[in-house]
Structure to design on (123 residues):
Protein backbone atom coordinates (compact mmCIF):
# COMPACT_ATOMS: atom_id res chain seq x y z
CA UNK A 1 0.00 0.00 0.00
CA UNK A 2 1.36 3.42 -0.98
CA UNK A 3 0.19 6.41 1.02
CA UNK A 4 -0.04 10.08 0.06
CA UNK A 5 -0.82 12.53 2.83
CA UNK A 6 -1.96 16.11 2.41
CA UNK A 7 -3.59 18.95 4.32
CA UNK A 8 -0.86 20.03 6.69
CA UNK A 9 0.01 23.63 7.28
CA UNK A 10 -0.55 26.41 9.76
CA UNK A 11 -3.47 26.38 12.14
CA UNK A 12 -4.47 28.78 14.87
CA UNK A 13 -5.03 27.81 18.49
CA UNK A 14 -8.67 26.84 18.81
CA UNK A 15 -8.96 26.38 15.08
CA UNK A 16 -9.35 23.33 12.87
CA UNK A 17 -7.40 21.46 10.23
CA UNK A 18 -8.31 18.43 8.20
CA UNK A 19 -5.68 16.07 6.90
CA UNK A 20 -6.24 13.40 4.31
CA UNK A 21 -4.39 10.29 3.22
CA UNK A 22 -4.96 8.56 -0.08
CA UNK A 23 -3.93 4.93 -0.36
CA UNK A 24 -3.11 3.07 -3.54
CA UNK A 25 -1.79 -0.35 -4.32
CA UNK A 26 -3.05 -3.17 -2.15
CA UNK A 27 -6.64 -3.42 -1.01
CA UNK A 28 -7.12 -0.36 1.21
CA UNK A 29 -10.32 -1.58 2.75
CA UNK A 30 -8.62 -4.69 4.14
CA UNK A 31 -6.55 -2.91 6.78
CA UNK A 32 -6.80 -0.63 9.75
CA UNK A 33 -5.52 2.91 9.19
CA UNK A 34 -4.08 5.47 11.52
CA UNK A 35 -2.37 8.79 11.98
CA UNK A 36 0.72 9.32 14.07
CA UNK A 37 2.64 12.42 14.96
CA UNK A 38 6.18 13.22 15.95
CA UNK A 39 7.16 16.46 17.61
CA UNK A 40 10.80 17.60 17.76
CA UNK A 41 12.73 15.53 20.26
CA UNK A 42 9.86 13.11 20.85
CA UNK A 43 8.90 9.69 19.62
CA UNK A 44 6.20 8.90 17.09
CA UNK A 45 2.82 8.41 18.73
CA UNK A 46 -0.61 7.45 17.45
CA UNK A 47 -3.21 10.22 17.55
CA UNK A 48 -6.07 8.48 15.76
CA UNK A 49 -6.82 5.07 14.33
CA UNK A 50 -9.78 3.38 12.68
CA UNK A 51 -10.41 -0.28 12.03
CA UNK A 52 -11.06 -1.80 8.66
CA UNK A 53 -14.83 -1.62 8.85
CA UNK A 54 -14.88 1.85 10.47
CA UNK A 55 -16.76 0.48 13.46
CA UNK A 56 -14.03 1.20 16.02
CA UNK A 57 -11.68 4.09 16.59
CA UNK A 58 -8.82 4.84 18.95
CA UNK A 59 -7.68 8.19 20.34
CA UNK A 60 -5.18 8.89 23.09
CA UNK A 61 -6.29 11.16 25.92
CA UNK A 62 -4.24 14.02 24.48
CA UNK A 63 -6.60 14.40 21.51
CA UNK A 64 -9.79 12.67 22.65
CA UNK A 65 -12.79 14.87 22.02
CA UNK A 66 -10.85 17.08 19.60
CA UNK A 67 -9.75 14.75 16.81
CA UNK A 68 -12.05 12.56 14.71
CA UNK A 69 -10.91 9.99 12.19
CA UNK A 70 -13.01 8.64 9.34
CA UNK A 71 -12.39 6.61 6.22
CA UNK A 72 -13.93 6.18 2.80
CA UNK A 73 -13.09 2.69 1.61
CA UNK A 74 -14.54 3.36 -1.84
CA UNK A 75 -12.12 6.25 -2.33
CA UNK A 76 -9.24 4.66 -0.45
CA UNK A 77 -8.93 7.69 1.80
CA UNK A 78 -8.70 8.31 5.54
CA UNK A 79 -9.34 11.69 7.16
CA UNK A 80 -8.46 13.03 10.59
CA UNK A 81 -10.46 16.12 11.50
CA UNK A 82 -8.52 18.11 14.07
CA UNK A 83 -10.52 20.64 16.09
CA UNK A 84 -9.72 22.89 19.03
CA UNK A 85 -6.08 22.91 18.01
CA UNK A 86 -3.42 23.56 20.62
CA UNK A 87 0.21 24.63 20.18
CA UNK A 88 1.24 21.22 21.49
CA UNK A 89 -0.40 19.65 18.43
CA UNK A 90 2.51 21.01 16.40
CA UNK A 91 4.28 18.04 14.86
CA UNK A 92 4.93 16.13 11.68
CA UNK A 93 1.91 13.91 11.04
CA UNK A 94 2.19 10.51 9.37
CA UNK A 95 -0.45 8.33 7.80
CA UNK A 96 -0.10 4.62 8.52
CA UNK A 97 -1.49 1.26 7.48
CA UNK A 98 -1.82 -1.53 10.01
CA UNK A 99 -0.88 -5.16 9.64
CA UNK A 100 -4.42 -6.30 10.27
CA UNK A 101 -7.96 -5.12 10.68
CA UNK A 102 -7.98 -3.90 14.29
CA UNK A 103 -7.17 -0.34 15.34
CA UNK A 104 -3.50 0.63 15.55
CA UNK A 105 -2.24 2.01 18.84
CA UNK A 106 1.56 1.85 18.56
CA UNK A 107 4.25 2.10 15.89
CA UNK A 108 4.75 -1.64 16.20
CA UNK A 109 1.39 -2.19 14.57
CA UNK A 110 2.26 -0.21 11.44
CA UNK A 111 2.88 -1.98 8.17
CA UNK A 112 3.43 1.05 5.92
CA UNK A 113 4.16 4.70 6.57
CA UNK A 114 3.29 7.66 4.40
CA UNK A 115 5.53 10.69 4.11
CA UNK A 116 4.95 13.16 6.89
CA UNK A 117 3.09 16.41 6.63
CA UNK A 118 3.92 19.29 8.97
CA UNK A 119 1.22 20.82 11.14
CA UNK A 120 2.09 24.01 12.99
CA UNK A 121 -0.33 25.51 15.50
CA UNK A 122 0.52 29.08 16.30
CA UNK A 123 -1.07 32.49 16.50
Amino acid sequence: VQLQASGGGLGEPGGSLRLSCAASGSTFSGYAMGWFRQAPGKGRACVASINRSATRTYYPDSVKGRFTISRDNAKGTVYPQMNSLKPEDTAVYYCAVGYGTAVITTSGGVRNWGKGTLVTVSS
Q: What stands out?
A: The two ends are 36 Å apart (CA to CA).
